Amino acid sequence: MTETGAPTRLPPLHPSDLQGISRLAIDGVVGVTDLVEHLHAAIALPGTSSQRTRGITGQVYRSVRGITRLVGGGIDLALSPLARARPSDAVTGIAIRSALNGVLGDHLHATGNPLAIDMSLQHADGIVARTGPPIPAGQARPHVVVFLHGLCLHPGLWTPDDDGPGLPERIGDLPGRSVLHLHYNTGRPVADNGAELATRLADLHARWPVALERLTLIGHSMGGLVARSAAHHGHASQQAWTDYLADIVTLGTPHAGAPLERAGHRLERALGWTPYTRPFNRLGRMRSAGITDLRHGRITACGGAPGLPETTRLHLLAASRSPEGHRTPSGDGLVPPHSGLAIGLPLDPTRLHRRLIHDCGHLALMHHNAVADHLLTALDR
Q: Are 181 and 74 within one domain?
């Protein structure tokens, strides 16, 4: 309901949105059926490792799954011609779609669900073109700054609620800079997003209308991990754009992992302790690969020490809800200071700059004046 008492209107649904929602619903029904059957098997067949029931009972469960998939296939087939009519641009609001991708994005991507967000670089007038000049030549500047949002978020959240100038606007107002935003599926593995971003930046460098002199990546939360992962992939494969990567800025990024995701992992393990709670273990695993990567601050698929181009500086900004001067500053509500500042990680101290922002929460880092003031000075050096 709105303040006037009128019902809140949801954005219109495109057929591709309905197709994506129907596929997700079918997956959910099949998943719940599997869960119930696994629990039934644990009770009816104690002492065995079987997750399936037998005889007539097993046939009933198989029938439910078969009929559900058959109905889902019919709905999908009916909506397919309409879904191809135009790209979806209003799922149920970009915020809801971004949140859904954060939680289930790896599943949406793997199943080809229309709700999955395709990675795109965006500027003020829309998505950067994939062929020809990426943006009009008159808007291109030699210093490109790319902003990367965090888990379950989207580029619009860099704009503060008071409609004042946000960090992208303040940096973009400086001479010689072009600001772009990355929108991506935050549920996919960080390493996959990093590798794809590296490829996108290589293509952008090749097609930029003016000579590229400098590149800066600014990532909030998970966005900082994706930025570091892209630099690692680009550096490892000797992509030319990394020669211009002067700065990576991370805001509230869990370089050493996130405690809340570790709590989810402990719940998953606890649910597996007995045969009767083990079927519910899959509920504990209902989080995306991207969320799991936050548990370790993981930016590569195989682990190991990620590399950075020799010319790249790393600016690590973390937040604390505690006032300045507090003996043991707290975290920002999601990421503790030692993780946000990468304390103890094997990073080159000669190219490392750390700053703790006090009286600030995790999301507030995207709009905090102290962050903007610090970066406007630091990125000019």
A: no
